[in-house]
Model the fold of this input.
Amino acid sequence: MVTQLPITVSLPTPTVVVTQGGPPAIVQIIITSTSETALVAVIGLPAGLQEKYAASNTNPSGTLTFTAAKTAPPGTYTPTVNVNSAGQMASTTFTLIVKAAAGP
Done:
């Protein structure tokens, strides 16, 4: 029987800051897995916030891009990143800060 190494997920940047209606925030996501693919879901994002995962060409690590609409409520949140890969699941949390847009 082959023992499978557990998968891991981490964000080198533990705090992500986005501004309402501003440019996207792009952060690295590090996934250690025996598979080259992963399903990534971010749970607990506020309304008006979108997330997009892009894997690299050779492994499931890649980038997460966060974009806040002008209607996203400002505040501090603690979303969870869930990763499914090689038949296993791993998760990590991070701090997300949505800043209010400056001026009219």
Remarks:
- The first strand starts at residue 8 and ends at 10.
- Residues 74 and 98 are 5 Å apart (CA to CA).
- Residues 8-99 form a domain with the Immunoglobulin-like fold (CATH 2.60.40.10).
